[in-house]
Amino acid sequence: MSQSLNPSSTIRILLVDDHPLVLEGISARLESEPGITVVGQANNGQQALEQAAELKPDVVLMDISMPVMNGLEAAEHFRNDQPNVRVLILSMHENREYIVKMIQSGAAGYVLKDVSSDELIRAIQTVAQGGTYFSAGASEALFSEFAQPEAQEKADTGLTKREETVLKLLAEGQCNKEVARTLDISVRTVETHRQNIKQKLNIQTAAGLTKYALEHNLISL
C-alpha cells in the first residue's frame, strides 16, 4: 500500500523516457523547483525498476512508449513489487484506452506532454502526497464517453473525439498552426494527431482526409 509523503519532505523523482533531450529538459526544470530533487534517469521500464529498487524514489515520472519494457508493463511491476513508489505517466497519447490501461496498472496520474511545467509540478506534488492527478486533456479523453453515450456508436471510425475534431478542422482548411491555436494545444500535438488519424484511417493525402470527413458528416459543403 502506497504511503503519502510528509509535506515538509523533499520529493525524490526518477525520470523515465527514451528521449535524452526530454530527460534533460524535464530534469533541468524540476531541479530548479524547491522541494523536488531528481535522483535518477532511465531510458526504459526495466532500467526504471532496477534504479527505483536502489534509489527509492517517491515518484516515477514515466513515458509509455519505450523499448525493452514499456510504461504499461513497468507500472504493473511497480504496483506488484514496489507499491510505495507512485507512478505518474507523462505521455503524448491521449486516447482513452491508454489512460484506462495505465489506471488499471496502478498509475497514480496521467499528464499529457503539452502541459505547462507548472502543471507538471502540481501533478508531481499531488501524487507524492497520495492523491491522483489527470491533466485536462487526459480527463477529457477519459470521461467524454461516459458523458456522451452516443460516442460508442461512433467508435467504428476508430478515432477519438479529439482526433475527429482535429480532422474536422484540417478538412475545413486549417493548417497545423491554426488547429493548434483553435484547440489551445501545441503544433507538435496536432502533428501527432494528424499522423495517428492517417494511420488509423489508412489515408495519406489531405484530399482523402477531406473526403472521409465529408462522408462521415464531420463537415458539410
Structure report:
With 221 residues, the chain is of the alpha/beta class. It has eleven helices and six strands. Helix 3 (71-81) links the parallel strand 3 (59-62) and strand 4. The longest helix is centred in the last third of the chain and has 15 residues, at 187-201.
Secondary structure topology:
Blueprint: E1 11-16, H1 20-31, E2 36-42, H2 45-55, E3 59-62, H3 71-81, E4 86-91, H4 96-104, E5 109-112, H5 117-128, E6 133-134, H6 136-147, H7 151-154, H8 161-171, H9 176-183, H10 187-201, H11 206-215
Parallel strand pairs: 1-2, 1-3, 3-4, 4-5, 5-6
Q: Which tags fit this structure?
A:
221 residues; alpha/beta; six-stranded parallel β-sheet; 11 helices; 6 strands; 52% helix; elongated
Biggest sheet features:
6 strands, parallel
* β-sheet strand percentage: 5-15%
How would you spell out the order of helices and strands? Answer: EHEHEHEHEHEHHHHHH
Number of strands: 6
Q: Indicate the mean pLDDT.
A: 86
Note poorly predicted spans.
146-155
- Total of helices: 11
Helix content: 40-55%
Q: What's the Cα radius of gyration?
A: 19 Å
**Which class best fits the helix and strand makeup?**
alpha/beta
Strand order of the largest sheet: 2-1-3-4-5-6
Shape: elongated
Distance between the termini: 57 Å
